[in-house]
Amino acid sequence: MDTVGKGASVRERVSETEWQVRKDLAALYRLVALFGWDDLIFTHITAKVPGTEHFLINPYGMMFDEITASSLVKIDLNGRKVMDSEYDINPAGFTIHSCIHAARKDAMCVLHTHSINGVAVSAQKGGLLPLSQFAFIALRSLSYHDYEGLALNPEEQPRLVRDLGSNNYLILRNHGLLTVGQTMAEAFQAMHRLEAACMVQVRAQAGGELTFIPPEILARAAVESAADRAHKAALAWPGLLRRLDRRNPGYAD
Questions:
Q1: Which residues contact 67 (CB under 8 A, 6 or more apart)?
Q2: Taking CA 115 as the corner, what is the angle to CA 136 and CA 81, rounded to the nearest 5 degrees?
Q3: Residue span of the structural domain in which 123 resides
Q4: Does a structural domain hold residue 4?
Q5: Spatial strand order in the sheet of 55-57
Q6: What is the per-residue pLDDT across 20-66, written as a single tens digit (0 to 9) for each?
Q7: 96 compared with 142, residue with greater pLDDT
């Protein structure tokens, strides 16, 4: 574990690149809380530290709207802290996220939620239905993973990796939602889209007869290119940070 300069601030002990990742990840935690997708201190968002096999995760016990760049815990792929911290981590966060980071080099950020709408759809046999434009986009890169209980068993990891495959959206049945991205902005945009699709579905099912997007239209949906995902996410991210600065500043501390 890195204890060099223990008396110094976290900001003084990490690279400029890592500090930027820390700020963006702390902002992402607070955005998840702002949008109402958090589950007290549970669920997790992780981000790789570029050029390393280390990633950052939330300090277990802090609410998502309290997390700062300095409070994030840095661990390795075995769940060991690589920089001293007063906080522990959620073991389930390590189980789910570490195997995805290890298998998917493009998954710099992994975002997992237990939102009410997401869990509701995850419990439906038909999964996400082609009811909205949100779903139209997500369905082309969506996988499912069957529920195996609390995510504490490392034997589940190969199945998580297999089920996600090369997709960017994952519905964990009876559990929640998961998205991956090359940046925090991409992971957030994907989750915003998937969460919206689930919300539309739950609300539409409470109304009258449903209208599905026709199969021939669905067949024309193309998987978003990495460049397109990055461009759209980069356009939205600065505005999201401005909203956060107005409503819950302090994440960059």
A1: 26, 29, 30, 58, 59, 251
A2: 110
A3: 10-247
A4: no
A5: 73-75, 55-57, 44-48, 109-113, 176-181, 169-172, 142-145
A6: 999 999 999 999 999 999 999 999 999 999 999 999 999 999 999 99
A7: 142
